Amino acid sequence: MRDEDRAPAAPAPLNRRQFVETALKACGAAAPLLVAVIRIPSAGGQETAGSDEAGYDAASHYYGMGIDIDKCIGCGRCVAACKAENDVPADTYHFNTWVERYVIDSQGEVTVDSPNGGMDGFPPVTSERGIRRSFFVPKICNHCANPPCVQVCPVGATFATRDGVVLIDEQYCIGCRYCIQACPYGARWFHPTKHVAGKCTLCYHRIVRGLVPACVEVCPTGARIFGEVEHPATPLARFMRMNDVQTLKPHLNTRPKVYYANLDGEVR
Amino acid sequence: MALPQQVPRLVVIFAAAIVALVAARSALVPATFGKFGHYRAAAVDSIAVRPVKFAGRQDCEECHDDVGSKRLAGNHRGVGCEVCHGPQAGHVAAPSEVTPPAPRDRSFCARCHAYNSSRPTGFPQIDPETHNSLKPCIACHDPHAPVPPVVPQECGACHGQIARVKALSHHVNLPCVTCHTVDEQHKVNPRAVRPTKPMERAFCGQCHDQAATRVKEAPRIDLATHYQRYLCWQCHYPHYPEVE
User: Fold this and answer.
1) Residue B93 class from Cβ within 10 Å (0-12 exposed, 13-18 middle, 19+ buried)?
2) Which of A198, A216, B145, B185 would suit a FRET pair with B28, their CA atoms being 20 to 30 Å apart?
3) How far is residue A93's CA from residue A256's CA, in Å, rounded to a whole number?
4) What are the extents of the domains in chain B?
């Protein structure tokens, strides 16, 4: 009984040579089909140029941003503008840029808050122990020259462009969230409906057209400065010449390209 | 010398495998992947063509040059049009179809100008509850060239933080000009023309030295021996000079 169950029905037995021949023929027949199937959707798109928008030469630029803490009034216009410009979800969890308020009380204890990313402004400080000092710190992706988020991406969906902007390829991102974990500045977030990582693009679509990022455009006090890191005749280079600039978490060797002036030692 | 029988077979199999690999790779790897680095170069293009929503102040001023030049001459010279009027690329594309909003609510101006102790010193701030609380801001201030309709009588109109601290201190009755000489231009161009500050210990000594006669009840120290290596304001904050 048992032997009968185990014995196969055994039609024409296949020897090794026949098997290899059949398999190779099948592969040969399938390969062009596969190529055709995969090429069709991509052939329609513009997969040729590689970031040379009419007259824009990515190789001749290298962008960064300057932020003057002494000028930030915490109005949150930058946060609102960024959400509008970049279609960031309008909830209280997802921000490309946000403003933090630091309050250092008379005992030296630091409190940081950022209600709704600072978009609706900040309520008056309430501190029972008296305030030693208090200030606003706008935060944004640092567009690191040595970005840890790019290092960890398993598929090459996030990258630093030749002009020094860290971007995400939304069609290629598999949504593994590894980059969100890797960013030491908390600048990345997970898109609730697209299921891909999201982040500041330094308004790449604006800067290739010669405009400044939306947050820089709407900053009423000029606390944000956009420009070239390496060209001496741009607003950013002047800002870096005229101020003692610092970066956030320099010990991590991420080499950020967002430069802060008048930064307090308590800022993380 | 005849090759062993299995060698040509293996060569055929390896060649087929390599062809299959190359074919699969060219099919599966996107066309522009690796052009500039380990990423799809075409993704940069798809990001670069996203629509712009904030047109930028230069575009606004191509038509509204009168408002533009007025703004550039006033205290809102650094404030872009779209800070208050919102993203207006749509208005630039179709000026008659899209009308930009103009915020007239008191709460909008207060976003920047309500007193908040975290704001930088010298930034003009008011207390919205006590500052003409029933009038819209634009009744007195032109948002495109805002100036105080009357020159502020009190320094605290702008320096609210200092005024509040001083109100709690023993210096409460000293007018600001006791210690600061303020040029009239400071009220018009606050950052370019700054008030003076006392520069030496002798200034505080006018009231606080043992030999001083100006104010009877001021606490006295011997200016010659009292921590003579330091300037007074290195230990005592002049707007709140109480000894802690």
Assistant:
1) exposed
2) A198
3) 24
4) 54-98, 198-244
Question: CATH fold of A58-146+185-261, please?
Answer: Alpha-Beta Plaits (3.30.70)
Looking at the complex, report in whole angstroms how far the Cα of residue B76 sits from the nearest Cα belonging to chain A: 8
Answer yes or no: are the C-beta atoms of A84 and B87 closer than 8 Å. Answer: yes
Give the containing element (helix H, strand E) for A160: strand A158-160
Q: Which stretches does DSSP call E strand in chain B? A: none
**For residue B204, with 0-12 CB atoms within 10 Å meaning exposed, 13-18 middle and 19 or more buried, which class applies?**
buried
Model pLDDT, residue A41:
45
Quick check: B117 and A70 CB within 8 A? no
> Is residue A12 over pLDDT 80?
no
Which of A31, A81, A124 shows the shortest C-beta gap to B54? A81
Q: Which residue has the tokens 């209600």?
A: A115
Q: Please, which pLDDT band fits residue A187 given cuts at 50, 70 and 90?
A: very high
Least confident range of A107-116, B97-106, B157-166:
B157-166
Name chain A contacts of B20, Cβ cutoff 8 Å.
27, 31
**ipTM, 2 decimals?**
0.78
DSSP code for A69: G
Quick check: B39 contacting A, CB < 8 Å? yes
Percent of chain B surpassing pLDDT 70: 97
| Chain B residues close to A266, C-beta within 8 Å | none
Residue type, B181: T
Report CA torsion sign: B202, B206, B210, B211.
Answer: positive
Of residues A9 and B125, more confidently modeled? B125
Return the residue in A35, A67, A161, A174 with the most chain B beta carbons within 10 A, the one to mutate for interface testing. A161
Q: Residue A73: CA atoms inside 13 Å, Cβ hemisphere, count?
A: 21
Give the B window 88-117 contacts with A, CB below 8 Å: 111-112, 114-117
| Rounded-to-integer distance, Cα A184 and Cα A180, Å | 9
Q: Which chain A residue's Cα is nearest to B79? A: A220
Please tell me the distance from the alpha carbon of residue B170 to that of residue A161, in angstroms, as a whole number. Answer: 59
Would the CB atoms of B40 and A161 count as touching at under 8 Å? no
Instruction: Report the alpha-carbon distance of residue B71 to residue B64 in Å, rounded.
Output: 11
Collect all residues with Cβ–Cβ distance below 8 Å to A35 and sequence separation of at least 6: B23, B26, B27
Confidence of residue B88 (pLDDT cuts 50, 70, 90): very high
